[in-house]
Amino acid sequence: MKEIFKNKMEKHSVIAAVKDISKLEAALDSKSEIIFLLCGNIFNLEDIVKKVKGRNKLIFIHVDLIDGFSKDATALKYIHEKINPDGIISTKNNQLKVAKELGMLTVQRLFVIDSLSIDTTVKTSSVISPDAIEIMPGIMPKITKKLSSVISVPIIMGGLISEEEDVKKAIESGALGVSTSCSPLWEL
Predict the structure, then answer these.
(1) Distance (Å, rounded) from C-alpha 169 to C-alpha 139?
(2) What is the mean pLDDT of the segment spanning 19-43?
(3) What pLDDT was estimated at residue 168?
(4) What is the rounded CA–CA span in Å between residue 158 and residue 132?
(5) Buried-most residue among 16, 45, 139, 169 (CB within 10 A)?
(6) Is 123 helix (H, G, I), strand (E, B) or coil?
(7) Residues near 169 by beta carbon (within 8 Å), at least 6 away in sequence
(8) Domains, the chain, ranges and CATH?
(9) Nearest 5°: phi and psi at 173?
(10) Is the per-residue pLDDT at 124 higher than 90?
(11) Using only C-alpha atoms, what is the Rg of the chain?
């Protein structure tokens, strides 16, 4: 699965970040091979995942943002066994560790706001060993270049990506993918 994830990002580097269910159909119809689900709840999650997988796209659930689930190992086990997404996104190290133990793909979302957070990102990614890290905000090519030279996992840039130029700069600076909720960019 890890190789499929990487191949889909290489094929189409723009990841559809769906933060409003009304945008799901546009994401499904887009060229994006991967969907980051940033909304949903205990009642609609299973149907959303089935719909996305039915279109041969990968789906990652941002478990920190889904309503109705506690933020513990039992909730992750339920999500893994009953809802069956391809992976999860989280800012919480414990969530990522449990998901990896369950055999799920993991994307660690990190906010880089100063030089200390850059150092923390490098250390955390080596300890957690996620399948990818998502650096936010995504409009920092200089930081992307620096991190891509010292981190061995794929880097996804996300947050504030709103123009084609933002996508190009992120990829040129070493990111493998870009996550954005700006639906016109899903067609790049």
Answers:
(1) 8
(2) 97
(3) 96
(4) 12
(5) 16
(6) helix
(7) 139, 141
(8) 2-187 (3.20.20.70)
(9) -90, 0
(10) no
(11) 15
Q: What pTM, to 2 d.p., does this model score?
A: 0.92
d(CA 143, CA 3): 26
Buried b (16+ CB within 10 A) or exposed e, 97-120: bbbbeeebbbbbbbebeeeeebee
Is 90 exceeded by the pLDDT of residue 70? no
The set of residues, in sequence order, having a beta carbon less than 8 Å from that of 39 and lying 6+ positions away, is 18, 19, 20, 21, 65, 66
Which residues on neighbouring strands pair with residue 34, listed in sequence order?
Answer: 58
Q: What is the DSSP letter of 104?
A: -
Give the start-end residues of each E strand in 99-154: 105-111, 132-136
Check if the beta carbon of residue 71 is closer than 8 Å to that of residue 63: yes
Q: Where are the beta strands (DSSP E) in the chain?
A: 14-18, 34-37, 58-62, 87-90, 105-111, 132-136, 155-158, 177-180
